[in-house]
Write a structure and sequence with these properties.
Structural class: alpha+beta
Radius of gyration: 32 Å
Number of strands: 8
Helix content: 40-55%
Largest sheet: 4 strands, mixed
Oligomer: single chain
Number of helices: 20
Order of helices and strands: HHEHHHHHHHHHHEEEHHHHHEEEEHHH
Strand order of the largest sheet: 3-2-5-6
């Protein structure tokens, strides 16, 4: 039996303009610059207002006019005669020669995988071996480890590269990869990573030789810090084990970590979206100059539209279609300019709220003065949606007198103290670091003891929360912090 019902639902549908603004809010300065360049290339009705040279008026050419046009000239008839609209390239620059030039620090570099590929290209391998080796490089993670099973990679290469291989051949090629810099790259486990590094060192050195034996033969005892058992098994006199353990502790457990973030960059490329200056105690906030280009509608094409509008009765079908096309481009240019202006306003408005909330920090850069702050706090101050604040914060940076900070850095969890005041999770972490830094390394504190210390200081915090913060700080559990 067919059951038919009428349901009334209220749906919110975003307009193309709203979608465009949302996308513009999310992107940082560098991407915005490219986005504007692309828009200028695709829409001839959009111009960069900072151009020094004024555009020459374009006059309509008669059908009988056989004169040759310059490359940069473009008439309304071209829309009717060409399938593709010619592109126009304008530089995005919002500075004049009188503006003070600001130095914006940034850095860039090659990717981790590219760094390995350059070294691999200098190895004596056949074409198939190079293909296999590069495929294996693609499976190395940002820490420098090969996490995928060799057997699974054999199947992948057969399917993706149409190369028949086997585990033995891949093991041999993996040894070539493990010979690359940084030492330890291509390891499948931490134990293998440490062994690769140790075996590249001088094995004639007694401490290095014994350290290699410990990782090779007594790895479990080492990870559990059962130093008494290791000394007994190796027949080491008291006091001789510590310098050997120090050799191991100075190795790099994550060879790829020195190459930056999880996108495997050597150094991160940062252009700040906001510039914050402290001038005689007064905070002055501006958008990075590349973030606020001056765009305008081309007067030439606006005038042409008015001309053709005034002569509608004598237009051909092609002319009418061309007029509709140009009007669409005009609307698109207006929407884009409006979206850029709204983006500027929203970014500045939101950043000002963040600065007001964290004024104590922005006055002198003292991180202990950062207050607990979540997206909801700024949303309530600005009367904007939390989703909008999240988009503004995403991938944005502010340059202050004391450094460049990701906007996400200023948001954290909050905890209640005995006095009913909120304490930042960052503040708790600083106390934890301080306590662990001063502890007796022969008897390191457990998470329970650390929780009690924090409670005595007036912070309501459970042992599991201490463990979570400790892990976020990359600090191991107490038994693994034990030293001889």
């Amino acid at each position: 039996m067919l059951d038919q019902r009428i349901q009334q639902r209220l749906l919110q549908k975003l307009s193309p303009q709203q979608i465009q603004l949302i996308k513009l809010l999310e992107i940082p300065t560098m991407e915005l610059e490219q986005r504007i360049k692309r828009e200028l290339e695709e829409n001839p009705l959009l111009e960069d207002a900072s151009k020094d040279e004024e555009t020459e008026p374009l006059e309509k050419q008669s059908d009988e006019d056989d004169s040759e046009k310059d490359d940069d000239e473009f008439s309304f008839e071209d829309y009717m005669n060409e399938e593709d609209v010619p592109s126009y390239k304008y530089a995005v620059n919002n500075t004049s020669k009188d503006d003070q030039k600001k130095e914006i620090p940034y850095s860039s570099g090659t990717t981790f995988i590219e760094f390995l590929q350059v070294q691999l290209s200098m190895k004596d391998l056949t074409e198939d071996e190079k293909t296999i080796a590069e495929y294996m490089l693609g499976n190395i993670d940002e820490d420098g480890y090969l996490r995928r099973e060799i057997g699974a990679i054999v199947d992948d290469i057969a399917f993706a590269q149409n190369i028949e291989t086997n585990v033995s051949e891949l093991e041999r090629i993996l040894k070539v990869i493990q010979d690359l810099d940084p030492p330890g790259v291509g390891a499948r486990t931490l134990q293998e990573c440490l062994l690769i590094q140790l075996r590249l060192m001088d094995q004639d050195n007694r401490n290095i030789n014994i350290a290699t034996t410990i990782i090779d033969k007594f790895y479990t005892e080492f990870t559990k810090k059962h130093y008494d058992k290791i000394s007994l098994r190796l027949n080491l006199p008291e006091g001789e084990l510590k310098p050997i353990i120090d050799v191991i502790l100075n190795l790099n457990p994550k060879p790829g970590a020195s190459f930056g973030d999880n996108e495997s960059k050597v150094v991160q490329h940062i252009t700040p979206d906001f510039l914050l200056e402290n001038i005689d105690g007064k905070l002055n906030l501006t958008l990075n100059y590349k973030n606020a280009p001056e765009l305008r509608i081309s007067e030439t094409y606006s005038d042409l539209i008015e001309t053709y509008n005034s002569d509608k009765n004598h237009q051909s079908k092609q002319q009418k279609e061309a007029l509709v096309f140009v009007k669409q481009k005009l609307d698109s240019a207006r929407w884009f300019i409006d979206a850029i202006k709204q983006r500027q306003h929203t970014l500045l408005y939101t950043m000002k709220a963040i600065i007001d909330f964290q004024k104590s920090f922005f006055s002198d850069g003292d991180e202990t003065k950062l207050k607990p702050m979540v997206l909801k706090d700024i949303a309530e101050i600005t009367n904007l949606d939390i989703s909008t604040i999240s988009r503004v914060v995403n991938s944005k940076y502010v340059q202050a007198n004391f450094g460049i900070y990701s906007l996400k850095y200023f948001f954290s969890e909050g905890l209640q103290t005995d006095d009913g005041e909120e304490a930042s999770s960052r503040e708790i972490k600083m106390i934890l670091q301080d306590c662990i830094g001063k502890e007796n390394k022969q008897k390191p504190m457990t998470d329970d003891i650390l929780a009690k210390i924090l409670q005595e200081k007036g912070y309501h915090i459970a042992r599991r929360t201490v463990a979570k913060y400790r892990e976020q700080l990359n600090i191991p559990v107490g038994r693994l912090r034990k030293e001889l």
